[in-house]
TrEMBL record:
Family according to the record: Belongs to the AAA ATPase family. BCS1 subfamily.
Cofactor(s) listed in the protein's UniProt record: Mg(2+)
Source species: Zizania palustris
One Gene Ontology term of the molecular function aspect: ATP binding
GO BP: response to stress
Protein name per Swiss-Prot or TrEMBL: AAA+ ATPase domain-containing protein
Domain AAA+ ATPase: 247-402
Reactions catalysed, as given in the entry: ATP + H2O = ADP + phosphate + H(+)
Keywords, in A-Z order: ATP-binding, Magnesium, Nucleotide-binding
Length: 519
């Protein structure tokens, strides 16, 4: 009994000593020399690892890419705020990068528990102060943030092989869901400065275009075919891998001005939840720059070149080359290696071959999940090689407004699905070519008088359609007259030419006869 009492006394003394040490440690720390303090910390760590059955993984903010935040860190952050934040007792809230969405995340030093296939895991977010004596070159580098993951050593394989990949995938998915989509435009290359924000290769603003497929006026069957195609593209990563193709798709939108080409691009971006890169080709100096721009785009994006026929003189050169060779462009296309020699790329401009490489060269496979869209008012002006299937996989004609498209506009703008004037409008739309932009303008009740009056708007539209019809008829008449006149003039010229030729022939014959007589 006495022995037991002594042992208990001894342990009691040890525990109370340890408790005092823990209590006094913060005060003592300041009096212990740095070297000894570090040694004690290492010793404590070693003792912990020796006796503790728990393992720890650290994920730090800057990882090995010292200038870029680690993707894994960002994924963990997103995962924790989404999947585990509800279990944390201290959270912090802030506005997201776009200053609109409220983002809630786990507060520093707040333990968060997670369970995965019956394994218990603990996450500890914390700050690691950098040494004050070290001069730092990194942005906001005074404190590096990190996450510590603690788990029992028997779950080691589960955590490394399954849990961490799960965190990465979930975190990325959450980031994509929460992100503010952006609209990028390329800067002129003499302003490129990767170290200054806003002066990179691409500048961006939040993408906020409200267009969607429901409000887009076009034939419903055509619309359904496009959305089906987009959906199939989005979901067919494995298919593209299996057929050995880069995961991208080209769309050519063509049609007269105001038929909704740009609106369609915005609707596609909203439908797919992609970023948009609006590439201004005239600001790109040469093919090398074009390639750089491509590499700097991210996946899940739409790359747009508007009015491709006006951006760069891509056609005349190619036509000239094909004219010289007396070969059709399509024929040439099969013979691709000849392209660069046909257009001498002197490095001072974007050439057709540069653009072809941009669309389906080796670099174009980097990153994946991209849609490339060209728009033009004049499809016939484009080189067939540029828009052949495989490069521009889908050609979509945006045409003048017909009755089906009008019905969508009437519903959007006036909330009307049936009206007695619809019959007349249908007739007029069949006979007249007007763009949806013109129809929409007439349906927009801007004046107070028209505000709540679909009748007035539709009557105004009928008036505008009649006017357009008359103008078109007058123009057609004028053109027909001009054509008839030209034909007449041509016939007259031909007649004159024939008469002159005949007279010359007669004169020559006479001259010959006279010559013979004299001879
Ligand atoms: N099919 C459409 N459905 C709904 N609105 C349309 C449609 N077409 C045009 N509009 C309206 O007309 C305006 C102009 O359309 P948009 O800019 O998309 O035409 P575009 O084909 O790109 O013309 P451009 O060839 O001149 O660039 C848009 O703001 C939109 O409101
Ligand atoms: Mg446009």
């Amino acid at each position: 009994m006495a022995v037991a009492g002594m042992v208990l006394d001894k342990w009691g003394a040890v525990w109370s000593g340890l408790a005092s040490l823990v209590f006094l440690w913060p005060m003592l720390q300041n009096h212990i020399p740095t070297g000894l303090r570090q040694w004690l910390t290492i010793l404590a760590d070693k003792l912990t690892t020796l006796f503790s059955p728990y393992l720890q993984i650290t994920i730090s903010e800057y990882g090995d890419h010292r200038f870029r935040r680690s993707d894994f860190f960002l994924a963990v952050e997103a995962y924790l705020s989404h999947a585990c934040a509800r279990r944390a007792r201290r959270l912090k809230a802030d506005l997201g990068r776009d200053a609109k969405n409220l983002q809630v995340s786990v507060d520093d030093h707040q333990e968060v528990t997670d369970d995965f296939r019956d394994a218990m895991l603990w996450w500890y977010p914390s700050n690691k102060p950098t040494r004050a004596s070290v001069i730092s070159f990194y942005p906001a580098d005074d404190e590096r943030r990190l996450y510590r993951l603690v788990f029992h050593r028997r779950h080691r394989d589960l955590v490394l092989d399954e849990y961490l990949p799960h965190v990465l995938a979930e975190g990325r998915a959450v980031t994509v869901r929460n992100r503010q989509r952006r609209l990028f435009t390329n800067n002129a290359s003499n302003n490129w400065n990767p170290y200054r924000s806003g002066n990179g290769i691409w500048s961006h603003v939040p993408f906020e275009h409200p267009a969607n497929f429901d409000t887009l006026a076009m034939d419903p069957d055509k619309k359904a075919a496009i959305t089906d195609d987009l959906m199939a593209f989005k979901e067919s990563k494995d298919y593209y891998v299996s057929v050995g193709k880069a995961w991208k798709r080209g769309y050519l939108l063509y049609g007269p001005p105001g038929t909704g080409k740009s609106t369609m691009i915005a609707a596609m971006a909203n439908f797919l939840d992609y970023d948009v890169y609006d590439l201004e080709l005239t600001a790109v100096k040469n093919n090398t720059e074009l390639r750089k721009l491509y590499i700097e785009t991210t996946g899940k994006s739409i790359i747009v070149i508007e009015d491709i026929d006006c951006s760069v003189d891509l056609t005349s050169k190619r036509k000239k080359a094909s004219g010289d060779k007396k070969a059709s462009s399509e024929g040439e296309d099969d013979n691709k290696p000849k392209l660069p020699t046909e257009e001498k790329d002197d490095g001072t401009k974007v050439t057709l071959s540069g653009l072809l490489n941009f669309i389906d060269g080796l670099w174009s496979a980097c990153g994946g999940e991209r849609i490339i869209i060209f728009t033009t008012n004049h499809k016939e002006k484009l080189d067939p090689a540029l828009i052949r299937r495989g490069r521009m996989d889908v050609h979509i004609e945006m045409s003048y407004c017909r009755f089906e498209a009008f019905k969508v506009l009437a519903k959007n703008y006036l909330g009307v699905e049936k009206h007695e004037l619809f019959g007349e409008i249908r007739q007029l739309l069949e006979e007249t070519d007007v763009s949806p932009a013109d129809v929409a303008e007439n349906l927009m009740p801007m004046s107070k008088k028209k505000k709540k009056d679909p009748d007035a708007c539709l009557a105004g539209l009928i008036e505008a359609l009649n006017k357009a019809k008359e103008e078109a008829a007058a123009k057609a008449k004028e053109e027909a007259e001009a054509a008839a006149k030209a034909k007449e003039e041509e016939a007259e010229a031909k007649q004159k030419e024939a008469a002159e030729a005949k007279a010359k022939e007669a004169a020559d014959a006479k001259e010959e006869d006279e010559g013979k007589a004299n001879g």
